[in-house]
Amino acid sequence: MTESQNSRALRESADVVVLGAGPAGLVLGILLHAAGIDCVLLERASRTHVQTRARAGFLAPNTVGILDRHGLSDGLHRDGSRHGTCEFRTEDGRFRLDYGALGQGGQHHVYPQQNLVTDLLTHYLDRGGRIRFHTEALAVHDADAIDGTGGTGGTRPYVTTREPDGRPTRWNARYVAGCDGRHGAARRSLPPGAVRHHHDHGVTWLGLLAEAPPSLDAVGYAVHDRGFAGHMARTPGVTRYYLQWHRGTPADAWPEQRIWDELDLRMRAADHGPLHRGTLLERGIFDLTCDVIEPLRHGSLFLAGDAASLLAPAAAKGANLAVLEAEILAAALTDALTRGDTAGLDGYSDRCLAHIWRAQEFTGWMTRLLHAAPEGDHRSAGSFFHAALRRSRLDSLRTSRIHQDWFAENYVGV
Ligand SMILES: Cc1cc2nc3c(=O)[nH]c(=O)nc-3n(C[C@H](O)[C@H](O)[C@H](O)COP(=O)(O)OP(=O)(O)OC[C@H]3O[C@@H](n4cnc5c(N)ncnc54)[C@H](O)[C@@H]3O)c2cc1C
């Protein structure tokens, strides 16, 4: 926004302006609103879009605990299911890990992200929460100038937005929460001192949503010379599948029949039973890349969820971290705004980064466990070495109780 546009822009305000209405922004908005904090959520997409975007499904016990604590879990207890077993299929046969009974114990709740987002939105709106759909945040300004208290010279952060009718608006705030994902305005507005640690696992997945009941009563991880294949239940009638995919190949390159044949082959259906086939409702390409922004605080701007750190979907951590960070940030902002106690805000970045790096480490380990070789490495001399390491890792997981306990603890933990 230019100076003259800025002076003509509509002006609105809230103590906390939250960018994005995904799991992070919604949980944060709900907790702030419940604490009596003046906040608003600005969401680029429509309500229908955010309520139908299918992504995560596996919620960790800690996440369910947070949702329980704040009365946000009725839907997931009513309509979700529980999962505590995963099955690995390899050239040496298959084995199961009842991770719910290993380590410190704990099962996943399986509840599609779009259902959770719908529940959170309904909860927030029913209680009078403020949200603007079709409102794209363009940039966060003056976040670094002060700490959000309006101290020196009264300068405060503000967010510029494009309203549905195209008008520019300026949202004045005391604090801004960037919960707008990896391509959002919060990341684009970071000062030069912010570091983005980026890593490419070198693997691409074709993610599929099939209108078909789950084919096994466990999460299925198939390790195959032709590449990884995965099976994850979503609802009794919808199942998520993944195929390791050649990077650059479009998602619609293969007809449905070929995709099911390939899933059968990699999941070794001939040995372990057929897959339930059905219409493919969605196809998406996911490059398994990850990153971490450090620090997560820049003056009055705080990052949470995918805006703070992107994780490859191999270990199902992203939505779980988003909810955890939202709860931590909500408590810290409430302390700062109601009691002037900024200790929580001061410690926010370090506290969340400890969880994030642990999740990144486990996700990287899972990624190496599941893939024969990184993209482009299938025929190289290193490929045999890589495959032998993977086989040894899987063997250790099959036979070592200590390894299994470690796996279970990290698999369900955040
Ligand atoms: C295929 C797949 C499977 C996954 N499975 C799992 C799983 O099983 N378990 C798990 O924990 N995680 C999983 N994840 C990760 C999880 O979906 C994400 O980590 C989670 O959505 C992050 O929540 P968020 O609120 O940070 O961001 P998002 O859900 O991305 O929400 C960000 C919101 O900000 C809005 N926005 C963006 N830019 C702007 C802007 N400029 N102005 C205003 N609004 C904006 C977007 O429209 C969006 O609504 C999976 C991801 C994928 C892709």
Give the CATH superfamily of the domain at 3-73 and 114-197 and 290-362: FAD/NAD(P)-binding domain
Low-confidence stretches: none
And the CATH topology of the domain at 3-73 and 114-197 and 290-362? FAD/NAD(P)-binding domain
| Annotation field: number of helices | 13
Strand order of the largest sheet: 7-6-15-16-17-14-18-21
As a percent range, the share of helical residues equals: 25-40%
Mean pLDDT: 92
Largest sheet: 8 strands, mixed
Q: For the record, what CATH class of the domain at 3-73 and 114-197 and 290-362 applies?
A: Alpha Beta
Provide a descriptive summary of the structure in words.
Helix content is about 35%, strand content about 25%. It has helices spanning about 5-10, 25-35, 45-50, 60-70, 75-80, 115-125, 185-190, 255-265, 270, 320-340, 345-370, 380-400, 400-410, and strands at about 10-15, 15-20, 40, 60, 80-85, 85-90, 95, 110, 130, 135-140, 160, 170, 175-180, 195-210, 220, 230-235, 240-245, 280-295, 295-300, 300-305, 310. An eight-stranded mixed sheet has the order 7-6-15-16-17-14-18-21. Strands 9-3-2-13-20-19 form a six-stranded mixed sheet. The chain has about 425 residues and is α/β, with parallel strands linked by helices. It contains 13 helices and 21 strands. The protein is globular and about 65 Å long. The protein has a domain at about 5-75 and about 115-195 and about 290-360: 3-Layer(bba) Sandwich (FAD/NAD(P)-binding domain), CATH 3.50.50. Strand 6 (about 85-90) and strand 7 (about 95) form a beta hairpin. The protein binds flavin-adenine dinucleotide (FAD). Flavin-adenine dinucleotide (FAD) binds near residues 20, 25 and 43.
